[in-house]
Amino acid sequence: MNGAQHIPEEDLALYAMQALSPEETRAVQAHLDVCPACRQAVSEALGDLALVGASVELQPLPQGARERFMQRIGADSNLATSSDRSTRPAHSEATVTAMPRRSLFGTIGWLAAAAALFFAAWLANQDHNLRQQLNAQRWQVTQLAAKADRAQDLMDALTSRSAQRVTLTEGKQTAKPAGHATYLPSRGALIFTATNMRPLPSNKTYELWLIPANGTGPVPAGLFRPDATGSASVVLPALPQGVPAKAFGITIENAVGSTTPTLPIILSGS
Amino acid sequence: MPENQVNPINPYDRARDAGRSATGKPEEAALLARVIKGDQDAMVAIYDRYAPMIYSVALRVLKDPGEAEDIVQEILVQVWQNPASFVSERGSFGAWLVVVARNRSIDRLRRRKPSESVDEVVLPATTNLANEAERSIMLEKVRQVLVGLPTEQQKSLELAFFEGLTHTEIAAKTGDPLGTVKTRIRMALTSLRKAMQS
Ligand SMILES: [Zn+2]
Description:
The structure holds two protein chains of two kinds.
Chain A: H1 9-16, H2 22-34, H3 36-54, H4 65-77, H5 79-82, H6 92-98, H7 106-132, H8 138-159, E1 164-169, E2 178-184, E3 189-195, E4 204-212, E5 219-224, E6 232-235, E7 245-254, E8 267-269
Antiparallel strand pairs in A: 1-2, 2-3, 3-6, 4-5, 4-7, 7-8
Chain B: H1 28-36, H2 40-62, H3 65-81, H4 93-109, H5 132-148, H6 151-161, H7 167-174, H8 178-197
Helix pairs in contact in B: 1-2, 2-3, 2-4, 3-4, 5-8, 6-8, 7-8
The structure holds zinc ion.
Residues 6-7, 31, 35, 37-38 of chain A line the site of zinc ion.
């Protein structure tokens, strides 16, 4: 503890956490302005707190977060570069949106091309992660092996004849929002892409549902939020294996998602 | 939805996540120097390094993936737009990002305006989250220390740091005297620092 004129360590720690009342904060601030020793103590407390913060369990970023960020910095830095961004793998979502809907191979050809692009970006990410995690511990190696298995599932979902391919549309309208699902029940492997999705408030998310053919309850198949162009994707969400689908549907849920769909189903297809 | 997107109830009940998002060479200073020149690839490299950590801290506080992503964007877009201001005597860039992620999240949680003092956060140069191997060992040690704290200390630190409660609010919530709450938080941080220095 410092001398009587200094701020007690207790209060400096609370100040560092912004956990003092406004009046107390002002008093501490006034002292810090003139006391290098207490500023140093706050700095050290912040160092401790950074460690506390960094000790949280890492969570995966939402689908498309990286692309959304890249669009932000692409737009902010130079408009000219945004026309050139198709050369960057991570901008594949934007590229997909721009692709003609009716290619030579029709919708399935479009979907396969789109999925291939996602796959390329996804592989690039995996490669990046692999390089990043060379020093990581054994459990991570196990995780990466699991991801490699999922890559095989993805390939099978794209190529297998038994993969179910479904196009989702909004009610009776000829409205723009559309989703495309490719699903391989035996592997529980699903690739879903959506276009022209309407933006959501930050406390909401779209949730994809698998409606099983055997009449059991809808299975949550991933959360997604559209990017600035209205595009979104769900690639290989955690799904049980061996559940043939009768249909797929999309609902709007609170941001953490739901275990049962909240009506109405805004897009569906079977 | 995948279980791993659900915010853990007990932040200290875990042991498997050492290692985590990588940092390491090239050094963050070199990356920031490239960002100053408008190098988008360098900014994306910074994103890949730190976004998961910023996101995880924000999600831990806000319990809302959309809002947590907003925090990531807000902070890193700010780095992109004004990188020169980060190449100063702030100490570790990674540690700075963690503290700012927490502060911005608490601000949002409490619907406050962004803290005015937030960008003036100055960290000791010794808080270096940049080296992958050191970082992984260090964070594992941090978790062990936090897990080993008396429950009341853990709880007080948790409420102040991750839930953004003031010491008065914590005292009201736990029914403990104000001085006790303050002491617990200080003791928790002191134990952590001692353990990390040993
Ligand atoms: Zn002082």
